[in-house]
Amino acid sequence: MTITTGHTNLTGTYTIDPVHTQIGFTARHAMVTKVRGAFDDFDGTVVFDAADPAATAVTVTIRAAGINTRNDQRDEHLRSDDFLAVEAHPQITFASTAFRMTGEASFDLTGDLTIKGVTNTITIPFTFEGASADPFGNTRLGFEGSVAINRKDYGVTWNAALETGGFLVSDKIVLEFEVSAIKNA
């Protein structure tokens, strides 16, 4: 299914459905395994025009204190000044600046990602998973994407050296997005 051809009915403003959306991340731990987590508290909007996809605009606000790795002690450490400093920087934000179709069902979304008060431009490749009407009469769009960032680029620099060499937490963090958005009435 293409996101543009024959789908002018998809044009509109959508609200990201937090109940059916996952904003997650993966980081390598102790150089031997991956730790996965998610942000449980966020909201966002998507403005899409099938006739002019380049005009697409996406904004997302994540409340950083909602980080969840299924380990309370680790989550508290991630909320601390060592990592996200949620008291001083309660929000992680993304605001798109460009949208480019890369295939019939794929696109790149470029925008400004702000973490811990530091803003960098990133490009996230996405796949359009489809559109449908849900049982409540809502039009839904689904898309998935991921991008690797370097946490040090955002001032998240804490680490601990390992006796065997290397570090406890990888610099590379993979951000993962599984999004369901509902068209506003």
Element layout with pairings:
Blueprint: E1 12-16, E2 22-29, E3 33-39, E4 42-48, E5 57-63, E6 67-68, H1 72-79, E7 91-103, E8 106-115, E9 118-133, E10 139-150, E11 169-183
Antiparallel strand pairs: 1-4, 1-11, 2-3, 2-11, 3-6, 4-5, 5-7, 7-8, 8-9, 9-10, 10-11
Search tags:
185 residues, 1 helix, 11 strands, mainly beta, eight-stranded antiparallel barrel, Lipocalin
Describe, in plain words, how this protein is organized in 3D:
It is a single chain. With 185 residues, this protein is mostly beta strands. The chain has one domain (8-183): Beta Barrel (Lipocalin), CATH 2.40.128.110. The protein contains one helix and eleven strands. It has one helix at 72-79; strands at 12-16, 22-29, 33-39, 42-48, 57-63, 67-68, 91-103, 106-115, 118-133, 139-150, 169-183. An eight-stranded antiparallel beta barrel has the order 1-4-5-7-8-9-10-11. Strand 2 and strand 3 (33-39) form a beta hairpin. The longest helix is centred in the middle third of the chain and has 8 residues, at 72-79. The protein is elongated, with a radius of gyration of 18 Å. It starts with 11 loop residues before the first strand and ends with a strand. InterPro entries: Lipid/polyisoprenoid-bd_YceI, TTHA0802/YceI-like_sf. Residues 13-182 form the Lipid/polyisoprenoid-binding YceI-like domain. Pfam families: YceI. Belongs to the UPF0312 family.
